[in-house]
Specification:
Elements: H1 2-80, E1 82-94, E2 99-111, E3 114-115, E4 120-125, H2 132-139, E5 147-148
Parallel strand pairs: 1-5
Antiparallel strand pairs: 1-2, 2-3, 2-4
Amino acid sequence: MMEAMLWILLPGCVALASGLLAWFVMQSRMDVALADQRTELAEARGAVDAEKAAMHASMQATLHATEETVKRQALDAFLNELRVEQRHYTRENRMLLQNRRSLVLQERMYFRNIPLSDWIEHEVQLDENVDIERMVQDMTIFDKAVVNITEIPRRKALA
């Protein structure tokens, strides 16, 4: 009877032992596959992070260049709306025996139609036979194209 029991239980124990052995082998294969996947995932994450950092640096450079361009365009637009109004006339001072002529040049800066400064006035003594227009060009403070007050279109006078 003992021998019969042994023949019945021995195959069961062998089956149980081989099942456990197969389970341990499959578990180690799964651990190796999981480690390989984690390695691939870490490499992919590293590549994505490197690409993300490169894209961020590129985006920062592009953003900085765009900001500089916008600032430059805004400054250019501002400077293009600045204008100078200029007027000049000659003044004669009559003293007892002497007539003194002087050229008075007045300039004022505007932003659109808002005056930015008061009239800046220069007075220079004139000699005989002096080209007044040339002297006005030499005396001007502002190098930008000067708008002469005589060139401004006049409104029609109200009746």
